[in-house]
Amino acid sequence: MKYICIILLAWLSIKNQAGQDLYACKNAKISLFSSAPLEDIQASSSSGTSVYNPATGDLAFSVGIRSFQFPKSLMQEHFNENYMESDKYPKATFKGKIKEPVDVTKNGSYPVNVTGELSVHGVTQTRTIPGTVVVNNGTVSMTSEFMVKCADHKIDIPTLVFKKIAESIKMNVSATYTAVKSS
């Protein structure tokens, strides 16, 4: 009987976790901005994907490097071929955990910090990234602004263009989530 109770408790625990709402976003907006003495560089993508589990705080993001659009085609070409080596490193990802509790059943704005692994250009760094989670009538959205140092991810900037590209790139992330049942 003792073993049956343990198995039943384990099954209920798994079933409850499987029935929890997850939140998914298929069109997260991610932009980058580089301010340098000779030229500002900006690009954006609306192709980021993200999954958020409010019960555990787990959060994951992924974006295809080639999905970033630049105002000038030459900038886009250099970004993909010379700096990001997009064929070799096609995605940037983040997988972490939100430290602060967020009640997705109550409207509000929740300042959060997410600690996890940021992988860019084949290099993974542990980062704590600040952000804000907003809950409004069942809709969950997140925003974040943070800096990424090129050197931290072995993104080489040739001395010939060092006045055109900043050593740190400002990233802005915005995602609106839809509740989905986990299976």
Structure description:
By secondary structure, the chain is an alpha+beta fold. The chain contains two helices and eight strands. An eight-stranded antiparallel barrel has the order 1-2-3-4-5-6-7-8.
Strand content: over 45%
Helix content percent band:
10-25%
Mean pLDDT rating: 83
The tally of helices reads 2
> What sort of overall outline do the alpha carbons produce when their principal axes are compared?
elongated
H/E order of the elements?
Answer: HEEEHEEEEE
Reported for the largest beta sheet, the result is: 8 strands, antiparallel, barrel
The number of E-state strands comes to 8
Structure summary:
The chain has 183 residues and is of the alpha+beta class. Helix content is 16%, strand content 52%. The chain contains 2 helices and 8 strands; from the N terminus they run αβββαβββββ.
Secondary structure layout:
Elements (H helix, E strand, L loop, with lengths): L1 H18 L1 E15 L4 E14 L4 E7 L8 H11 L7 E8 L9 E13 L2 E14 L2 E11 L18 E14 L2
Antiparallel strand pairs: 1-2, 1-8, 2-3, 3-4, 4-5, 5-6, 6-7, 7-8
